[in-house]
Amino acid sequence: MKKSLLFAALLTAGLNVTAQQAPKPYGVLPTQRQLKWQETDMYCIVHFSMATYTDKEWGFGDEDPAIFNPKNFSAMQIVSAAKAGGFKGIVVVAKHHDGFCLWPTKTTDHNISKSPYKNGKGDILKEYQEACNKLGMKMAVYCSPWDRNNPLYGKPEYVTKVYREQLRELYKNYGPLFMSWHDGANGGDGYYGGTREVRKIDRSTYYGWDTTWGITRKMQPGASIFGDVGPDVRWVGNEEGHAGETYWATYTPHAPEEGKVPANGFVKDYEGTEGTRNGKYWMPAECDVPLRRGWFYHESQDGQSRSAYTLADLYYKSVGRGACLDLGLSPNKDGVIANEDVKILKDFGGIIKATFAVNLAKGAAFKPSNVRGNSAAKFGTTFLTDNSRYSYWATDDKVTTPTLEIDLRTAKTFNVIRIRENIKLGQRIEGAAFDAWINGAWKEIAAVPSIGANRLVRLPYNITTSKLRLRITKSPVAVAISDFGLFKEPVHLVAPVIRRNKQGEVNIYTEAPVSSIHYTTDGSAPTISSNVFNKPFMLTAGGEVRAAAFEGTGKSESTVARFGFAKEKWQAITKADNAAAAIDENESSYVTAPSNTFVVDMGEERNISSFTYLPRQDKNTSGMVTGYTFAVSTDSNTWQDVATGEFSNIKSNPVEQVVPLRAAVKARYIKFTASKLISGEGISIAELGVR
């Protein structure tokens, strides 16, 4: 009997020891460099180079270095603006697709030493590095694999003697780096040393990525490598700044062609938005999005930057879903961030700082349904508010759907919930719900399909309660939750929406009632003394409208809308189903013509200084124009070509394209011809316009 009791005691003791061991990791796990990247949360990618001066998104490679001469370039101003926004680092675009290098490289003459900037002695990369060091910001580099200038592009020598050597120079002279950023755009037409031809590559094999990444690992071991296929950080599959509502840090990339190896620019990129549950690799997503409409500065986009509250929304849809946010900054031709963008960054940083300044869950009493091995000291709920991402509350192996009650002790008001998993043990949870104690009963207020490194639940309304409950609704293994927080986002006024119909009538409205809306049409910022909007007004000749909402002493951010000539008299000459959709002032509708040409009769002669093209907005690239010719006529018989070019990056960033003409022209008829489509047959247009 004594032996039996002794055996039972030893067995129980053994079980308790086992139960108090940490949970076994689940699936693939992050490396130390990936953890450091994840903790960064937000950083900025800075596009400032040749395209800044040519008013393009992608340079062709034939640009003269003499045009690069910023009058007041200030890396300190640029990096300071990013830091004021709460961003923790910058990615410097050291070389874009045009091949111009912002450092004095030995690999090509197409570099800053051949420009007049600082009499050929300038080094933009060094200035960024010094600014980051002074301001305590991280730094990374972007070096485009595609080079539309270099005569060797397309040959093996370009990779071995140019591209990899450029990376070696950057890694040697400008570290330490927290990332090495590799773009997926590669192969196509370009200058290529004067040949002006199309060069295609095998995107699956040309760059020898395994060998190229080996250079990064050797020279910058702490840098996470970004690319469509990682290997450390993947592209999220859009340039809209958001990850999927369901989001997995694990990922298995697939090539678009069966039997081929996936590579940068050669992957089913849409799969990156959500990732792959139980994927082959730990490869979290970066959500990149420009602050302005394009990645490079364009004067025509002044006043149209994303607002601070739009950035806050993107923060919740990127960082708040477990990814990181990479915001594009575009210094102007002087070499600084425009004042309006500086203010937006500062305002955004203020919103985030104010929202997360106080965790209302601190000091609460937590009541879990289970604690691993009954060991509160090792796996208890006190770790949920200790500001560590890696200390955690854990459950026994067999308890995969626990509950956690949170007694706030007094009624508190919040509108943001934060929950995190300890990702050192993998991404484990597949579903969770949140309940509030309201009117004597539990009421579900939110649910999420995944958690991961960070999940922010932005509620549509304020919740006031003294008790909450977390329910894990699905998990294949025991949970390991490192953080729980409740926060209150400050009240704000939403900026108005400005719309114009085909007749030229402008309407301005807000999503919620406000005391008043004020607007201007002279380019000035709206104030309480500006015109009061109380009924629609006509703007047939085009122009700029700015509007803001007012409530008490509060003022919303301003909305800016630019319009061309009204289209009441316009008629589509091209025969196509739904042809009128191309000129109906409705961004959601579109036409697909049977050919690559679309002709419009404006009904009267107009003096035209620019034209606009909005591609279809349904995330389908069929018929989307990338190469174009714009022609005009006074009689529809004799045509004059007035603009020819390419819409660079339109597939990833399908915003309105504005093409200024070299000189104003008089015309009644306009003809838009696609010389190159992203995919499909027949030109597609959401909206065509002239200014």
UniProtKB/TrEMBL annotation:
Q: Name one Pfam family in it.
A: Alpha_L_fucos
SMART domains xrefs: Alpha_L_fucos
Q: Which GO terms describe its biological process?
A: fucose metabolic process; glycoside catabolic process
Q: Where is the F5/8 type C domain?
A: 525-691
- PROSITE patterns, alphabetized: FA58C_3
| Enzyme Commission number, as recorded | 3.2.1.51
Q: A Gene Ontology CC term for this entry?
A: lysosome
Q: What class of enzyme is it?
A: hydrolase
What keyword terms does UniProt attach to this protein?
Glycosidase, Hydrolase, Signal
Record InterPro entries = FA58C, Fn3_assoc_repeat, Galactose-bd-like_sf, GH, Glyco_hydro_29, Glyco_hydro_29_N
Reading the lineage from the top rank, the first entry is Bacteria
The residues the entry assigns to the signal sequence are: 1-19
Family that this chain belongs to:
Belongs to the glycosyl hydrolase 29 family.
User: What's this protein's name?
Assistant: alpha-L-fucosidase
